[in-house]
Amino acid sequence: MAGYGGNFVVLLPNGISAFRFADGHNYDVDTMVLAGEALRPFPCPSGPREAPPREQQPLSASEVRTELPGNTLYADPWNVFGIYDARLNLFVAADGVLYNTLNGGSDVGTWHDAGRWHIAPDGHFCSRGWNDQRERCATVYQEGETFELYPTDGLGKMVFTRAPGNPEGY
């Protein structure tokens, strides 16, 4: 969740909540998340536990190379900065260009960006935008036409549905 001016609350999967109060519209939460991930929650009392989720295997580099290029990925609607629901579309062009559109509706409008993508030898799908020059990599899981990307920086996951080709005309 984010507030006006760069204030953030991050709820991490390890049970830790991180807070940052800042000003100046600084939305870089990476260092805050990494510090929060270094903390570990206190032990919980023993009790009934849920069955562990089915073990999925991430896609290998060759599988990612086969499944993503030449396709458009549509993200489930997600809440951006706690303000509005947005839709993210990515076209993974075979020539290594990644086109993306973030449609924030009437509150924010539509943002377009493009950048470069590559597949790391370990199978991570990595991209670098033209507006944001930091490289981001993610582990890719697939079930049917649904792809889950788990960023290696630990900032949650994104779920996409694949559509063949380039229906948006990027």
Walk me through the structure.
This protein has 170 residues and is mainly beta. The protein folds into two domains: 31 residues, no CATH class; 104 residues, Lipocalin (Beta Barrel), CATH 2.40.128. Helix content is 12%, strand content 41%. It has three helices and eleven strands; from the N terminus they run ββααββββαβββββ. The protein has an eight-stranded antiparallel beta barrel. The protein has a two-stranded antiparallel ribbon with strand order 1-2. A hairpin with a 5-residue loop joins strand 7 and strand 8. The longest helix has 9 residues. The chain starts with 7 loop residues before the first strand and ends in a 6-residue tail after the last strand. About 6% of the residues have low confidence.
